[in-house]
Write a structure and sequence with these properties.
heterodimer; A: 191 residues; alpha/beta; Pyruvate-ferredoxin Oxidoreductase, domain 3; six-stranded mixed β-sheet; B: 575 residues; Rossmann fold; 4 domains; seven-stranded mixed β-sheet; 20 helices
């Protein structure tokens, strides 16, 4: 059975590292894995989505509407934007940070309010975390991606050691401490 | 060893294993990482060429010298390199020569959605189309064998979803290949007499390649049922397998030009319903129809945008889930110039002066996006200068005093220089602004001939932009710092007023470069801010309004101080 994860956020927030760590982890666990990324213009502050799929045999590199077992999101408006990709019964792990898109900055549109509450009211399982604060607590605001992965790990039947190995293999040694703390803070998050 | 690898990296690995010795490319999404990964192998000489035409000619020179050679580009890059490609089909190669073209169905990062398979047909060269990373690696190696066996350049067609997806590959070791260079005027000098003798050789080669296409294992039948047969290739193969599994038979084509005849006829004869699933143009479908076979394709599937498993499932009337959505309107999040982008100040000055701005290809194309909304035309690499020349020639004084071309340093090197030569030679009173951020930005920071560094970041030749423009006959060349709005405004005003062609070089390094030191972020003194929104006019993603006051996002601001030059109350400061 193939499992699908989408990682969404604002271009430049660090979703490529998150998908790299996941890919490394899942391959080592013996799964067939595909990861599909976005490069180029969208990385300049646009809405970006990365797909991660794993299972016995994976064909398509992308996840479509109604197919994601997990949405991992760096920004709450992006969570709402890609919500329709979630499968019935799927789980959201999201940062509550708000980054105004240009139409909101220019006043052409409004940033919707109470998104977490509205998603929850739709009967969707959502872990909403202030990842920026947790990442700063861990030692760097750049560790938001690792806080999110830490929380995601909570839903996987994969050993802590395997996650740690995947972290070690993909982050520079001098930032390993910070990232390990960030991972733990995410993993132990309670609403 | 099994590894998870990006399609482009796998292709580069295939180049290395195939014994490739020379790579010359111009960056372009989604092809860039092939060359960036190839340079990590010490056995391969790699370079960024000024443009794709030069890259392909250089790769041909290396092939002529007897070393396996490669050049990679995006789909529109092959338009630039089409001239050498069409005649390389006639000369053939010495050592293997492989060209990658990476299409961008869905236009994730491109100005059009052209289908490059037409180039293989038009130039009469073989084209392979991998569907995942493992095939990208293996097809790269196979392409060199085909190139040398059939004496032809070979094109590998990638697409965004193969180039930028990671899947599992198995790697092996490098095998060296080289051939001696032998003088052969009849083969390599394409003047009419020789070319006339080469053309029949090309036609005969195509006939032999069709025979090859009938038997090559990369064109394979996965027969499971006679109810439905699907002919497909590339990433579409993956979507088809995702949707149908074993419930449709598949003819999976790895070689897209020339297409087999008997293989397709035999497959068609075994199934009750035959469908072609391919993105963009009906290339395979047209071929299948030319064989007199009953086939569906264009009536089921769109001829625009990229496909996905849901799109194909719907085309075959299968049920799909649309997921759930909130009632709220979700504001769009288009890409924007980064906080601290040096282009921003220059565009603000152009907007303030109500200039007509003819643009070019690069990050600065985002100058067309609100609130700057300044660029009025973007076509292709280098077109800003040619178009400004023609525009001014026709409108004369009505446009000369307010029209500018904007072009980046890398794009200017690519194909802006010839446009400037036209301005200087045929004397239009045009104002050209070179946005020199000392890097090729949009594709992720590649060096170019004006940066003074090569692909490895080592010192290299450096073209002096000022001296170059002057040597072309442009007398008025000046440099401004785009962080200084007053200087920008003065330069634009004076050069537009001048009665001869001029070049303004707006010079400041891309803020994302690791060598650029950022100043601490600014913040707004809420007591001083009067909520006039003057600072909002530059469209900086780090500034927003909260409770009628401007607020600076401390995680994004790099302290460029462009906003503070607009504030009438001096409300911006840093600790």
């Amino acid at each position: 059975m193939t499992k699908n994860i989408i990682i969404v956020g604002v271009g430049g927030q660090g979703s490529l590292l998150a998908s790299k760590i996941l890919g490394h982890l899942l391959l080592n666990e013996g799964f067939d894995v595909k990861v599909s990324e976005v490069h180029g213009m969208s990385q300049r502050g646009g809405s970006v989505i990365t797909y991660v799929r794993f299972g016995d045999k994976v064909y398509s590199p992308v996840v479509d509407k109604g197919q994601a077992d997990f949405i991992v999101s760096f920004e709450i408006l992006e969570t709402a934007r890609w919500l329709s990709y979630l499968k019935a019964g799927g789980q959201i792990v999201t940062n509550t940070q708000q980054i105004d898109p240009m139409p909101v900055i220019t006043g052409a549109a409004e940033y919707p309010t109470n998104l977490v509450e509205k998603i929850r009211a739709a009967g969707i399982k959502i872990d909403a975390m202030d990842c920026l604060t947790l990442a700063r607590q861990a030692g760097s605001q750049k560790a938001v991606n690792i806080v999110l992965l830490g929380r995601l790990s909570h839903y996987f039947d994969i050993s802590e050691a395997s996650w740690q190995n995947a972290l070690k293999a993909n982050v520079p040694p001098k930032f390993l401490d910070i990232n390990q703390r960030a991972f733990k803070l995410g993993k132990n998050f309670t609403a | 060893m099994k590894e998870l690898m990006l399609g482009n990296k796998a292709l580069a690995r295939g180049l290395w294993e195939a014994g490739v010795a020379f790579v010359s490319s111009y960056p372009g999404t989604p092809s860039t990482e092939i060359t960036e990964e190839a340079v990590k192998f010490d056995d391969i000489y790699c370079e960024w060429a000024p443009n794709e035409k030069v890259a392909m000619e250089s790769a041909f020179g290396a092939s002529l010298a007897g070393r396996r050679a490669f050049c990679g580009q995006k789909h529109v890059g092959l338009n630039v390199a089409a001239d050498p490609l069409f005649t390389l089909s006639y000369t053939g190669v010495n050592a293997g020569l492989v060209v990658v073209v990476a299409d961008d169905a869905g236009m994730h990062s491109s100005q059009n959605e052209q289908d490059s398979r037409h180039y293989a047909i038009a130039a009469k060269v073989p084209m392979l189309e991998p569907s995942d990373s493992a095939e990208a690696l293996n097809f790269a190696k196979l392409a060199y064998d085909i190139s040398e066996e059939f004496d032809t350049p070979v094109i590998i067609k990638m697409c965004t979803r193969v180039a930028h997806s990671q899947s599992v590959v198995e790697t092996s070791e490098r095998v060296e290949h080289s051939r001696p260079y032998v003088k052969d005027i009849a083969k390599y000098v394409m003047m009419p007499g020789n070319a006339k003798r080469r053309h029949p050789i090309v036609e005969e080669r195509t006939r032999r390649l069709i025979e090859y296409a009938e038997r090559t294992p990369i064109n394979r039948v996965e027969f499971t049922t006679d109810e439905l047969g699907i002919i497909t290739s590339s990433t579409c193969y993956q979507y088809v397998k995702e949707v149908f599994g074993e419930s449709a038979s598949v003819l999976k084509l790895g070689m897209i030009n020339p297409l087999p005849v008997e293989l397709i006829k035999n497959f068609a004869a075994r199934v009750k319903r035959l469908v072609v699933v391919e993105e963009l143009d009906p290339v395979i479908e047209t071929h299948v129809k030319s064989l007199g076979l009953q086939v569906e394709g264009s009536e089921l599937l769109p001829r625009i945008d990229e496909f996905s498993q849901n799109l194909i499932a719907q085309a075959f009337s299968k049920e799909i889930s649309e997921g759930v959505a909130l009632d709220d309107t979700i504001p769009a999040r288009p890409p924007v110039m980064c906080a601290g982008c040096p282009h921003r100040g220059l565009f603000y000055s152009l907007k303030k002066r109500k200039c007509t701005v003819l643009g070019d290809i690069g990050c600065y194309t985002l100058g067309a996006v609100p609130p700057l909304s300044t660029i009025e035309m973007t076509l292709c690499m280098g077109a800003s200068i040619g178009a400004t020349h023609g525009f001014n020639k026709m409108l004369g004084k009505a446009s000369e005093g307010k029209t500018v071309a904007v072009i980046g340093d890398s794009t200017f090197m690519h194909s802006g220089m010839t446009g400037l030569a036209n301005v200087a030679y045929n004397q239009s009173n045009s104002t050209i602004i070179i946005l020199d951020n000392s890097i090729t930005g949009m594709t992720g920071h590649q060096q170019n001939p004006s940066t003074g560094l090569n692909i490895k970041g080592d010192p290299a030749g450096k073209i002096d932009l000022e001296a170059l423009c002057r040597a072309m006959g442009i007398n008025r060349v000046r440099i401004v710092d785009p962080y200084n709005l007053k200087d920008c405004d003065t330069a634009i005003k004076e050069e537009l007023a001048a009665a001869e062609p001029s070049v303004i070089i707006s010079r400041r390094s891309c803020v994302l470069l690791k060598t650029v030191k950022h100043k601490p972020p600014l913040h707004v003194d809420a007591n001083k801010c009067i909520g006039c929104k003057s600072c909002m006019k530059i469209g900086c993603p780090a500034i927003s309004m909260k409770d009628e006051k401007a607020v600076v996002d401390q995680t994004q601001c790099v302290g460029c101080e462009v906003c503070s030059q607009l504030c009438p109350k001096g409300a911006f400061s840093r600790d």
